[in-house]
Amino acid sequence: MKLDEALDLVAEVPDFPEPGVLFRDLTPLFGSAAGFAAVVDALGEVIGDRVDRLAAVEARGFVLAAAVGYARGLSVALVRKPGKLPSVAGRVDYALEYGTATLELPAGSVAGDERVAVVDDVLATGGTAAATAELIRGAGAEPTGVAVVLELAALGGRARLAGLPVHALRTL
Question: Which of 76, 102, 161, 165 has the CA that lies 20 to 30 A from 125?
Answer without folding.
Answer: 76
